[in-house]
Amino acid sequence: MSKIPAFGLGTFRLQGQVVIDSVRNGLEVGYRAIDTAQIYGNEAEVGEAIAASGVRRDDLFLTTKIWVDHYAQDKLVPSLEESLAKLRTDYVDLALIHWPAPGNGVSVEEFMTALADAKAKGLARQIGISNFNIELTRQAMAAVGKDAIATNQIELSPYLQNHKLVDFLQSEGIHVTSYMTLAYGKVLGDPVIGAIAQRHQATPAQVVLAWALQRGFSVIPSSTKRENLASNLLAQTLRLTDDNMAQIAALERNGREVSPDGLAAQWD
Q1: How far apart are the first and last CA of the chain?
Q2: What is the pLDDT of residue 1?
Q3: Pairwise CA distance, residues 147 & 141, whole Å
Q4: In terms of Cα–Cα distance, which of 33, 51, 21 is closest to 92?
Q5: pLDDT for 64-118, tens place per residue?
Q6: How many other β-carbons are positioned within 10 Å of the β-carbon of residue 253?
Q7: Domain boundaries defined on the chain
Q8: Which of 117, 144, 215 is nearest to 207 (CA)?
Q9: Of the candidates 72, 101, 232, 254, which lies 20 to 30 Å from 186 by C-alpha distance?
Q10: CA angle at residue 229 from 45 to 13, to 5 degrees?
Q11: Closest listed residue to residue 154, CA positions, set 174, 173, 172, 124
């Protein structure tokens, strides 16, 4: 059983009052896991919304991601301490390395060891990686031990199913967190998804999120609309048939949305 909540609220691209409102609404409709990152530039606003919500810290699961500029051993812990100050908390539940950034001059061993150090200091309850391919995941495992890596957060949608990487992670017991599960909304207009949604009297977003959940992944969709935040949560109670799952599996088209030069490694 993964120690990562199956359903969380993403905050990528949300800024200022928009992210404050999204987190506030999310917490009000029942979200308890919030995902942010240093590079999103919204940790302080996320912290503000959480503080105003009155939800107890113990009831929340907070994730942030260390940005590439802070990977060096002498920078990682101070950068996480800065994130914690913005988030108004003493620890995050999960701290991730955001991108492997193979060309930036800091080895996997160095930044993973620094991340493990942050965990040992109590700044993060769990640690993990994001956007790592198989080879770099192996290097991260070699640096800190397989059991120390709680998850690999990767882009994953019906259009980009990442089978090789997913199979590897699952065989190693590393939990998969799916981001951009709706492919920037592109999958929501897919006729196959639409037909399944109609059959279940569900929304296309609920169908796609339910597909990911049934594959055993965690999901962190974002929304600025309260009704969509609430609606997305209902994906947890939607059960797709084996036939539905097979139809969605057939939508694979290697439709990657995010692969920044210099940050991403060679994808599997």
Answers
A1: 26
A2: 36
A3: 8
A4: 33
A5: 999 999 999 999 999 999 999 999 999 999 999 999 999 899 999 999 999 999 9
A6: 12
A7: 9-249
A8: 215
A9: 101
A10: 45
A11: 174
Catalytic residue selected from 31, 40, 71, 179: 40
Structure tokens at 168: 């590897």
- What's the CA gap between 140 and 150, in Å, rounded? 12
Q: CATH number of 9-249: 3.40.50.10090, 3.40.50.300, 3.20.20.100, 2.40.50.140?
A: 3.20.20.100
Alpha-carbon span 19 to 153, nearest angstrom: 21
Consecutive 10-residue averages of pLDDT for the chain (268 residues):
86 97 98 98 98 97 98 98 98 98 94 98 98 98 97 98 97 97 96 98 98 98 97 98 98 94 91
Helix (H, G, I), strand (E, B) or coil at 65: strand
The first and second tokens of residue 186, run together, are 């592109």
Sign of CA dihedral 84, 88, 93, 97: negative
Rounded to 5 degrees, what are φ and ψ at 7? -130, 125
Q: Enter the tokens of residue 159.
A: 């259009």
| pTM (two decimals) | 0.97
pLDDT for res 148: 97
The DSSP element (H or E) to which 221 belongs, if any, is none
CB 11 within 8 A of CB 45: no
Is residue 159 part of the annotated active site? The answer reads: no
Q: CA of 236: how far to CAs of 152, 202, 204, 207, in Å?
A: 21, 12, 14, 10
